[in-house]
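User: Can you help me understand a structure? I only have the sequence.
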Amino acid sequence: MSDNLMSLLRATNPEPIAQEACGVDQEARMRRIMTTHALAGRGRWPRPAVLLSAAAAIAAVLLVGGQLLPSQSGTVANAELPSMLTYSPIKGHGADRAAIDELADKVAALPAEIPNRGTVKRTGWYINFVEVESSEVASGRMEPVVAPVEVTEYPLGVDGPIYDYELSSDPDQLLRQLSESHPIGEQGTAELFVSIADLYFEQAPTPAVRAALLRLVAEAKGVEASTTTDRFGRVGLAVSVWSRHGGKGGIDTLIFDPATGYLLAHEETLTEPLDEINLEVPAVLGYELLEILPSG
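Assistant: Let's start by predicting it. Here is the structure, written out as tokens:
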């Protein structure tokens, strides 16, 4: 991984988040994010949203370390936002792709599994923004709003709103399938990452499909690999790529289980300041943690 990308990944609190800091009580599990504006609202599974006027007040809380912290007006301090994870580079020429290909080979050799008709649990957090209204006219500037952790469960199966068909284990055909609902050709690797996160929210792909997904990631432009521990304390292979958020640079990361190739997490960070918002960078824009729950 390049020194430049690694320095950005490590720039904010380079300590992994303890697993107990991610505990979510039942009340928080039932909350949904109240969104007026999303900075990076690309194609993704539906999230509840309420459209409010610029002058409307929004009450939101973020669960951090088991405590509910009230939202504040004005600039949100980075201490109130999720800390970035620790990423350890995989060293050596060509080591990034080699690590992903190695995991793909391992997953492809796994025995076929009984189709999972259970559920997927998604624990997510997404920074929200509201438009600031001046005393005379709307300023056009956006203020961050500290948001609640959101936990949802969704039944697995080949009947989701996006992927309602069997997925191919051939990488080229699989890419065509993903591109039917996501503009991967126009938006590149970052949109490929979004399509993969969407897929895992609806299906528990077979080892053959998981291996094909990893091969697509390995062949994608600009992907760099590292190891990390996600917000549930799970060790994973992280693949990161530069992306654009509101016209500025950021980093998108997928984290895969090193034994099964399942997607564990999806993280988005902003690394360049935006003129339109009051937010110190680098900053976590959002994360999603996935857990596959077997039926029964």
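Now, to help you interpret it: The radius of gyration is 19 Å. The CA atoms of residues 6 and 89 lie 7 Å apart. Let me know which part you'd like to focus on.
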